[in-house]
Design a protein that fits this description.
The chain contains 12 helices and 12 strands. The protein folds into 3 domains: 86 residues, Winged helix-like DNA-binding domain superfamily/Winged helix DNA-binding domain (Arc Repressor Mutant, subunit A), CATH 1.10.10; 98 residues, Periplasmic binding protein-like II (D-Maltodextrin-Binding Protein, domain 2, 3-Layer(aba) Sandwich); 106 residues, 3-Layer(aba) Sandwich (D-Maltodextrin-Binding Protein, domain 2), CATH 3.40.190. The two termini are 31 Å apart. The strands form 3 sheets. Strands 3, 4, 5, 6, 7, 10, 11 and 12 form an 8-stranded mixed β-sheet that branches. A two-stranded antiparallel ribbon has the order 1-2. Helix content is 45%, strand content 25%. The protein has 300 residues and is α/β, with parallel strands linked by helices. Belongs to the LysR transcriptional regulatory family. Pfam families: HTH_1, LysR_substrate. One of its GO terms (molecular function) is DNA-binding transcription factor activity. This is Transcriptional regulator, LysR family.
Length: 300
């Protein structure tokens, strides 16, 4: 039930007038009448009576008035305690993110986190997987969001999401309208690949190896460190590539790229949050890590 319905009912009971209650709540009388009807429908009882002296409560209305006051009071206490808790989450946090999630997902997560905890100051650093993990280990970032395999060493990490990768090609002949290609056709094409050290490249090579495709057989014509550069090169017809779905939503919507699957080759990109135990002592770091494990993290 919407707490505002109870607040409206309390206002009517205290003022004994729809017009005065509407003025107090800054709503129209018809809107207030509709709210009372919703309450009466919900409880299947009549709550108020209109008389020459104004609005009076029925016996059921008096029972609801008593409970409504307690519920609203408890709810307002809860709101205050939550506000106090949010205010207690404050401070600075440096988040490192590998290229794809850093460019296409984590910024939205930080925005939502900042709305929830406005006293925090979050700095985002974006690089490839190898760079971000190195900065995490040397203390340049507090928490890392990375693509690829679960990081090893003395880092604590857990998988928070996964993303399907697809082959991208220019959305024109011979690719337009197609949804898949064979492994043999894929290997025969000029391929534009991410650079060594990229989490996306790591997962691509792993998935291809599991499907029995040796990376030495790939016809790699170019290596680029930028997802946008790869997409531009593919759109220009210089080759095909493999990209995570997070990075190509706009191009698929605008129909500048075609997305295809390699037959019999699942391409799944895993996304992890990682940190050093000794670096996660602050309330803001703990809150951010917990937030990134929830569905409300709001990847763009």
């Amino acid at each position: 039930m919407n707490i505002n319905l109870l607040k409206s009912f309390i206002a009517i009971a205290e003022t004994q007038s729809l017009s005065r209650a509407a003025e107090r709540l800054f709503v129209t009388q018809p809107a207030l009448s509709q709210q009372i009807k919703q309450l009466e429908t919900h409880f299947s009882v009549q709550l108020i009576e209109r008389t020459n002296r104004g609005i009076v409560l029925t016996e059921a209305g008096r029972i609801l008035f008593d409970y409504a006051n307690r519920i609203v009071s408890t709810y307002e206490d809860l709101e205050k305690n939550m506000d106090d808790f949010r205010a207690s989450i404050s401070g600075n946090l440096t988040v490192g993110a590998s290229s794809i999630v850093g460019g296409y997902a984590v910024p939205c997560s930080i925005f939502i986190f900042k709305e929830k905890y406005p006293e925090t100051n979050i700095k985002l650093k974006v690089g490839n997987r190898r760079q971000i993990l190195e900065e995490l280990r040397n203390g340049a970032v507090d928490v890392a969001i990375i693509e690829g395999e679960k990081p090893d060493g003395n880092l604590i990490s857990s998988e928070i999401a996964s993303d399907e990768m697809v082959v991208i090609a220019p959305n024109r002949r011979p690719w337009q309208g197609r949804t898949s290609l064979s492994p043999e056709e894929f290997m025969s094409q000029p391929i534009i690949m991410r650079e060594e050290g990229s989490g996306t490249r790591q997962m691509i090579e792993k998935c291809l190896k599991q499907a029995g495709i040796d990376k030495s057989r790939l016809h790699i014509v170019m290596e680029l460190s930028s997802a946008d550069s790869i997409k531009a090169a593919v759109e220009a017809g210089h080759g095909i590539s493999i990209m995570p779905g997070l990075a190509i939503r706009k191009e698929l919507y605008n129909k500048t790229l075609a997305a295809l699957k390699i037959e019999g080759v699942p391409l799944i990109q895993k996304i992890h949050v990682a940190y050093k135990r000794e670096k996660v002592q602050s309330s803001v770091a703990k809150a951010f890590i917990k937030f990134m494990h929830t569905p409300n993290r709001g990847f763009c």
